[in-house]
Specification:
Layout (H helix, E strand, L loop, with lengths): L13 H9 L10 H15 L3 H14 L15 H11 L15 H13 L3
Helix pairs in contact: 1-2, 1-4, 2-3, 2-5
Length: about 120
């Protein structure tokens, strides 16, 4: 179901890469794959500047009790060590996030996470 909520590139781009990045943090082990991918779809929307999609998904996620913040995945956006570790893993050369038509750096990915964290539908 989650894969159908994003754009046509969702299944092969940032959503799964963000999931993979989250898996390096032990506290996220208890969350289902699809739950972490759902959060990744939000990050992808932020990376692509799709505020309209981000708004629609955030509203839908709240209805379906899907995470709209890292805190809901027990990750603290202010914990630089954890965020840096997650970003580094998300941006590994083998990750599908590099299919996105944007320039990706740790700073651009961090900005996307921060946008999702502060987004209000």
């Amino acid at each position: 179901m989650v894969g159908g909520l994003g754009d046509r590139f969702t299944r092969v781009a940032a959503a799964h890469a963000v999931h993979n990045g989250l898996t390096v943090l032990p506290q996220t082990e208890k969350f289902l794959h699809g739950t972490k991918v759902a959060y990744g779809i939000l990050v992808q929307s932020a990376l692509l500047g799709q505020d309209d999609v981000l708004a629609q998904l955030t509203e839908a996620y709240q209805r379906f009790h899907l995470p709209t913040t890292l805190a809901e995945l027990e990750v603290d956006i202010n914990n630089q060590v954890e965020i840096d570790k997650m970003i580094a893993h998300t941006l590994r050369p083998v990750e599908s996030i590099h299919y996105l038509p944007v320039t990706l750096t740790p700073d651009t990915l961090r900005a996307a996470f921060e946008k999702v964290e502060s987004f209000k539908a």
